[in-house]
Amino acid sequence: MENNFLVKQLLYRSNHRGCKETDILLGRFFNEKYHDFSQIKLQLYDKFISEDDMLIYDWILGKIEVEAQYLELVLDIRKYHNL
User: Fold this and answer.
1) Domain residue spans in the chain?
2) Distances from the Cα of 69 to the Cα of 3, 5, 54, angstroms
3) 26-51 burial by CB neighbour count: b if 16+ within 10 A, else e?
4) Which pTM was predicted?
5) 37: helix, coil or strand?
6) What fold, for 2-80?
7) What's the rounded Cα separation, in Å, for the pair 31 and 2?
8) Where are the alpha helices (DSSP H) in 1-83?
9) Beta-carbon count within 10 A of 15 CB
10) pLDDT tens per residue across span 11-41
11) pLDDT category of residue 1 using cuts at 50, 70 and 90
12) What does the alpha-carbon distance between residue 62 and residue 9 come to, in Å, rounded to a whole number?
């Protein structure tokens, strides 16, 4: 049950960021891929989307170096969006 609550929170937070670009990048990715996430990956994603929108956007677009802890996740998002 706790996992369902976390997923619902993450779905909402992925789609309602305050920055339309990250809404699209994160929302579409998470809506389709969260079923494949382990509990550990869900927790990492929760931490990731707590970061600043512009930082996340720049990481995904490769404008700045990604923090090592988020590298695999960012690569998954880039692959999903063919970036």
Assistant:
1) 2-80
2) 22, 24, 18
3) bbebbeeebeebeeebbebbeebbee
4) 0.91
5) coil
6) DNA polymerase; domain 1 (1.10.150)
7) 18
8) 2-15, 20-33, 39-48, 53-61, 71-80
9) 15
10) 999 999 888 999 999 999 999 999 999 999 9
11) very low
12) 27
Q: Residue 28: what pLDDT?
A: 97
Amino acid at 61: L
Tallying the residues shown for the chain, one arrives at 83
Residue 67 tokens read as 């923090």
Q: How far apart are CA 1 and CA 54, in angstroms?
A: 32
- Token pair of 76, please? 């998954």
| 29, two tokens | 């990715």
